Amino acid sequence: MKVLTTPIGEKEARGLRVGDVVYLTGTLITARDEAHKKLLEHGSPLPLEGGALFHCGPVVRKMEGTWQVLAAGPTTSARMELFEADVLRKFKPRVIVGKGGMGEKTLAALGEVGAVYVHFTGGAGALAAQAIRTVTGVHWLEELSMAEAVWVFQVEKFGPLVVTMDSHGRSMYKDLAVQVEANMKGIRERIRGSK
Amino acid sequence: MNLVEALTEALAQAATVLSPDVVQALQAAREREEGPAKVQIEAILEDVNIARTHKVPICQDTGTVSYYLRVGQDFPQLGQLMQALPEATRRATSQVPLRPNTVHPFTGKNPGDNTGRYVPAVTWEFVPGGEAEIHVLPKGGGSENCCVLKMLAPGVGLKGIKEAVVEHVVACGGLPCPPTVIGVGIGGGADLALKLGKLALLRPLGQPHPEAEVAQLERELAELLNSTGVGPMGLGGKTTVLAVHVEYAHRHPASLPLGIVVQCWAHRRGVVVVHRDGRVEVKR
Questions:
Q1: Which of A75, B49, B61, B147 has the smallest CB count inside 10 Å?
Q2: What does the pLDDT look like over A42-61, one tens digit per residue?
Q3: Complex ipTM
Q4: Residue B145 burial (CB < 10 Å; 0-12/13-18/19+)?
Q5: Touching check for A1 and chain B: CB below 8 Å?
């Protein structure tokens, strides 16, 4: 089991390749659409360099004064394509955790900064929550509400995380799209030949 | 158990316990897959186990709640039923808890209890008899964003329908959290086609449409989609869909509406039956 521990150095991030399966230990910070926008407009309420950003709107509740995370799977990363390249350049997180992959702008920024995009199984919110040991902070909760706030989690062996976009310009999504398109040629013919 | 309690229980079960037919389909997928695809299905099944054991939501996106009702024309407690739907939504939101997911489109304000203007969404169908059957379908945003309506030219026929469904599901890739369940609504009109797609999701997996021609289309679409290679989470593999369900209505001669409803692997649903004597029953 390959475990990445935050803070993650540029060299370590550049050592990761598409297809690697890793787990994360340390600090994991959530940021969705509104948080990305706010990070770029107002700056970050906490240091992000070497950190891991998580596209996630968790279900949390306060039990006896302590935040408890019940479910925290990833949200669709494509929406953050609007902001991620700028966030990567400005704050230098080394790992972006999400689902569904991101586009060319992010892929280029991952290469420039030395960072990776990793995929966590979409919907597996309970599995994710189990790896979250404590909540050590929350920012912008009042303004952005539960799903959009910036939550700071301490995690242990959070995963499995599949590296699907690396700092060498490779994207599993692009590779797969080529393969699926090849399969589609035969499928289209079968449909045309059917009743 | 009264009606509100039963509906709250059905919502809680839907959020935390994946129904056996869906689990079975995922287990079958695990047997088929290897490599990254198998890693995904194994993570899903582990997640399902944790959620059931600890009574926590399967997915953090506990969705927006919708109800589909088949109400007997002689059902005596209609007023009570109407009030119970939003009330159970509020209760389940605080008890499970569910993520507050209803946002005002103009102000961005979230009432915090999963209710609001027109939500929970309620679809009423009146049938003979004196019972009421209430289906709960909390559905996540990722898969809902992949639902579309196509107004096809009737001349394209079944081939055109197959092509449109396959091209669309492939274009969605990993976004709706595959392996998905696809609800296909054919005919009716623009609104009805999508509604039929949603109603098709209420049928348990492994139960084909009772009409042979429709069941044949369901099988064919599932087989075509599973040979695309999109795979679990869009990372490649043999299981892009767990099932395809088709429903249809008669159409206008000039129209061939096609509603494509995409549902994530966390296909959460539940049923409450209210008997004529007032007894309520929570089913899966």
A1: B49
A2: 999 999 999 999 999 999 99
A3: 0.91
A4: middle
A5: no
